[in-house]
Amino acid sequence: MTPDDLMGFMVEVFPQVHKDFNVEAVTEDGVRMRLYVTEANLRPGGTVSGPSMFALADVAIYLATLSRIGPEALAVTTNGSIDFMRKPSANTDLIAEARLLKLGKTLSVGDVLIYSEGVDAPVARATLTYSIPPKRG
Amino acid sequence: MTPDDLMGFMVEVFPQVHKDFNVEAVTEDGVRMRLYVTEANLRPGGTVSGPSMFALADVAIYLATLSRIGPEALAVTTNGSIDFMRKPSANTDLIAEARLLKLGKTLSVGDVLIYSEGVDAPVARATLTYSIPPKRG
Amino acid sequence: MTPDDLMGFMVEVFPQVHKDFNVEAVTEDGVRMRLYVTEANLRPGGTVSGPSMFALADVAIYLATLSRIGPEALAVTTNGSIDFMRKPSANTDLIAEARLLKLGKTLSVGDVLIYSEGVDAPVARATLTYSIPPKRG
Amino acid sequence: MTPDDLMGFMVEVFPQVHKDFNVEAVTEDGVRMRLYVTEANLRPGGTVSGPSMFALADVAIYLATLSRIGPEALAVTTNGSIDFMRKPSANTDLIAEARLLKLGKTLSVGDVLIYSEGVDAPVARATLTYSIPPKRG
């Protein structure tokens, strides 16, 4: 699936949240995603909220998986871990670099580095596992 | 801090999100929090989104910490892990039972079980670590 | 399976490590396990090594699972997270209180609190997921 | 610190375990470590035990941190997460590629990919956080 395919799928199945994100690229081993940072994502001290970064990591591994297996709305996250390492820059979009580490028949596992756009050191890292439903015959 | 104190603090420092949550009780070792489940939290298949559950776990440990140390807006999450174990019930609020496992000078650690209200088996579990800023003299 | 059944199974399938552990009890929702702390587990500063605590948590959820489904040597860990919260007491065994949070056909999930024997505050917490192989017909 | 410096430090402070490991290289952003796989690490089905892989990841981030800050025996792990993704090859050493993602004054965070030597797809991934003690004056 191309970035346009993935965004079209987002619009269809995630009408509540697709406007927060953009698929920047499908990369060799995953995807690059953008979170448009707005007032809604900010927290005291001007930082981006943890759940916003978790959401970015979650959708990035979801779409990285779908970019390989095709549209499968019912893949669900079974597990995630996240480390918040640095304070994001104020008023700056976040960029997630997601890579798939495993893509099996029933599970995919990927990790993500999240950056404030234009800054070298990552602000967060995360790992997500997705359960892929069996194909209907 | 009482449930009313904690909700007043939420209104003040989290104007974007306080309406999604309610502090049901301050318990012996933590807090009980409610996530009002609305269309915005739902995902394909009628399930509540993973990031919504992460957000509930995150705010529950935050407020469990503050219920012991007083209002400290600048406490920040440094790490989290979450397991999604069962599909939440449709159109049912989520209840988080958060307990503090450690409350030190610089870190608090707590874990959370999340339930669909009225259902015995938990839908998710999470652990969060918060960094507590040093007191200004 | 009783504690004696579980230890008999350990002797058979984990000949390398069974002597390090004891099943103290099969509890309502899991098991209680002991790690015999010896010189081999210690690290600089007199603390018990992190991998020793991970091993204790891992075997505790494994045996909690088997205590419900019967001997199944090929269950494998798929995921774990652990928080080291306090320094264990010197020269004191560790006790793990493991509880199962989910026991499905293909996955079990449990969490563990680890204590220095006789001390109230936990030294570590962990969560483990096990994959249960399908029954052979 | 060079690989020889790091192994010399291991011999001194981890007399119980240094023989299980070798520092293969100090890399641009971390270290490469080897776990000598022996009978003691094996589990039913011929797989390497999860705790052995956790131990490899743990020591790799520890030494990656020390390779930058110098010998500091009292750095302690505060948190870890690990995903076991594929079955390791039988009778094959494991190689960990560890990279530091953050090296602050009080915390270091790194992640690790673990491979069966000579096989392209990783068998496990892990993330570890270390707490670095303050310098004595």
TrEMBL record, chains A, B, C, D:
InterPro entries: HotDog_dom_sf (IPR029069), PAAI_dom (IPR003736), Thioestr_dom (IPR006683). Transmembrane segments: none annotated. GO terms for molecular function: acyl-CoA hydrolase activity. Residues 45-118 form the Thioesterase domain. The keyword Signal does not apply. The keyword Hydrolase applies. Signal peptide: none annotated. This is Phenylacetic acid degradation-related protein.
